[in-house]
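Field log, afternoon session.

UNIT: design team B
ACTIVITY: writing a sequence onto a fixed backbone
BACKBONE:
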C-alpha cells in the first residue's frame, strides 16, 4: 500500500509540474510548435535515466524509484489533457 501511495503522490506532483511547465514554455515560445511537450519529454526522460542509475548504483533507495521515476517523472512525461 505504501508503494501505491508513493506513486500516486509523485504522479500528482509530476502532472501538475508538466501542466505548469507547458504553460510557461508556451508563453515564451508560442504555440506554433508544441515546445512545452518537447521540453518536458526531453528533460523528463533525461531525469528518469539519472534516477534509475542512482537507484541501481545504490545511491538512492528502491522507494525513490517509485516516487521519483514512476511517480513524479512518469506523471511529468505522460500527463495529457
Amino acid at each position: 500500500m505504501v508503494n501505491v501511495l508513493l506513486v500516486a503522490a509523485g504522479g500528482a506532483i509530476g502532472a501538475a509540474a508538466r501542466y505548469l511547465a507547458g504553460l510557461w514554455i508556451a508563453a515564451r515560445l508560442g504555440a506554433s510548435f508544441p515546445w512545452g511537450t518537447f521540453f518536458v519529454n526531453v528533460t523528463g526522460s533525461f531525469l528518469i535515466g539519472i534516477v534509475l542509475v542512482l537507484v541501481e548504483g545504490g545511491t538512492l533507495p528502491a522507494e525513490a524509484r517509485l516516487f521519483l521515476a514512476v511517480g513524479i517523472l512518469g506523471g511529468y512525461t505522460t500527463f495529457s489533457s
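LOG NOTE: The chain has a mean pLDDT of 93.
NEXT ACTIVITY: expression trials, pending approval
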